[in-house]
């Protein structure tokens, strides 16, 4: 069975350590653990590995956040992966920094990457791992906040957050969303 894990983010060195790129960071962390290299491909950088008989595809869209749906839709069709076998890794302002929460569906919550995916799939019913980035910004400064770099203190904690994201991803592929939520949601 095929699974597709999509990390949301923006391409380019200026976005590397921004809050909006935590989805990319999580996939980079997993790829490093598995000794995988991302290769540029259509609408995304991609790599894959086998996990107990399942083929796991990792993609980082190169369409920029606001057009993530184009890459997601293409790779779902190309790999013949149903929505329930896809997991989106997304930054979330509504969750405190370091919080990870898996959900089977939900609204975009104003997140442009999720809005784009919903528009492409004509549905908001797809699994997502919400990765908390906090909401420590002045009113009206949301865009600046998500596109700003993590603080030094936060960067020191990021490896532990990324490490905790791995069981969410792999258990999702092996045991399904309900079991994963039961085991790991905070």
UniProtKB/TrEMBL annotation:
<feature type="binding site">
    <location>
        <position position="66"/>
    </location>
    <ligand>
        <name>tRNA</name>
    </ligand>
</feature>
<feature type="binding site">
    <location>
        <position position="64"/>
    </location>
    <ligand>
        <name>tRNA</name>
    </ligand>
</feature>
<dbReference type="InterPro" id="IPR018171">
    <property type="entry name" value="Pept_tRNA_hydro_CS"/>
</dbReference>
<feature type="active site" description="Proton acceptor">
    <location>
        <position position="20"/>
    </location>
</feature>
<comment type="function">
    <text>Hydrolyzes ribosome-free peptidyl-tRNAs (with 1 or more amino acids incorporated), which drop off the ribosome during protein synthesis, or as a result of ribosome stalling.</text>
</comment>
<protein>
    <recommendedName>
        <fullName>Peptidyl-tRNA hydrolase</fullName>
        <ecNumber>3.1.1.29</ecNumber>
    </recommendedName>
</protein>
<dbReference type="GO" id="GO:0004045">
    <property type="term" value="F:peptidyl-tRNA hydrolase activity"/>
</dbReference>
<keyword id="KW-0378">Hydrolase</keyword>
<comment type="similarity">
    <text>Belongs to the PTH family.</text>
</comment>
<feature type="binding site">
    <location>
        <position position="112"/>
    </location>
    <ligand>
        <name>tRNA</name>
    </ligand>
</feature>
<feature type="site" description="Stabilizes the basic form of H active site to accept a proton">
    <location>
        <position position="91"/>
    </location>
</feature>
<keyword id="KW-0820">tRNA-binding</keyword>
<comment type="subunit">
    <text>Monomer.</text>
</comment>
<dbReference type="InterPro" id="IPR036416">
    <property type="entry name" value="Pept_tRNA_hydro_sf"/>
</dbReference>
<keyword id="KW-0694">RNA-binding</keyword>
<dbReference type="Pfam" id="PF01195">
    <property type="entry name" value="Pept_tRNA_hydro"/>
</dbReference>
<comment type="function">
    <text>Catalyzes the release of premature peptidyl moieties from peptidyl-tRNA molecules trapped in stalled 50S ribosomal subunits, and thus maintains levels of free tRNAs and 50S ribosomes.</text>
</comment>
<keyword id="KW-0963">Cytoplasm</keyword>
<feature type="site" description="Discriminates between blocked and unblocked aminoacyl-tRNA">
    <location>
        <position position="10"/>
    </location>
</feature>
<feature type="binding site">
    <location>
        <position position="15"/>
    </location>
    <ligand>
        <name>tRNA</name>
    </ligand>
</feature>
<dbReference type="InterPro" id="IPR001328">
    <property type="entry name" value="Pept_tRNA_hydro"/>
</dbReference>
